[in-house]
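agent> step 3/5: call structure_predict on target 'Alpha/beta hydrolase' (Vitreoscilla filiformis).
agent> reason: downstream docking stage needs a structural representation; sequence fetched in step 2, passing through unchanged.
tool.input:
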Amino acid sequence: MSELINVNADGRALTLEFAWVGPERASLQGEAAEPLVFLHEGLGSLAMWRDFPEQLCTALNRPGLVYSRPGYGRSTPRPAAERWGLDFMHLQAEHVLPALLAALGVTGRYHLFGHSDGGSISLIHAARCGARVASCTVMAPHILVEEFGLVSIREARRAYLETDLRTRLAKYHDDVDSAFWGWNDIWLAPEFPQWNIEALLPALACPVLAIQGVNDQYGTMAQIDGIAQRHADTRLLKLPACGHSPHRDQPAAVIAAGQLFFASLTPA
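tool.output (status=ok):
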């Protein structure tokens, strides 16, 4: 069951939905007590992860923190008239996530696990605020805008207006229009092709595991290859017969890769 917590981020009072999963933090010591923080996709929420965070954290024997960003799930909705700018992921990485961690008493090291927009936010956070980030796992992250992905985002807009997509998403968001239009409007804004975080990647100071499906409809391998080109301590996993959500398409492969990755972080 998720909980709610009030935080102040970037001068705004926000209510954020969160849940702890996996082993109890209090029962673990040392590196095993360092939580894994999950950051969801652009249309996601805490609930849309389903039981994957619990499965992964149990396999890694460490606690997990899952939350819904503002505008999603049970968190503070986006005001109807508010339009996100090119810095919307930076605001989440540099203000909202640090405020949540502080409010929950996470004062030591932690690991990031981000999907899609959440992967991009993880990379920005690790590059800009990352002295305490022990590792960063990203699935289908975005480091630049590709026309290939924008085609799928335009199709998502059509589906939201013409099919049952809105009804299906409404199960996971208190204000489904807040979630959908916040994401879709900025990604399809005329200025959005300027968005790019490649210049931040050399500032990463932690190991990175970057995962992408070969059949991802929102991005090509240029996304994770670009991370490896700019950050030497990057492991790549390219999954055949896999789309934009590796944790749903091939959860066992993602968990196995996570176990190998975390084993490599632990000194012998």
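agent> step 4/5: record observation. The first strand starts at residue 3 and ends at 9.
agent> proceeding.
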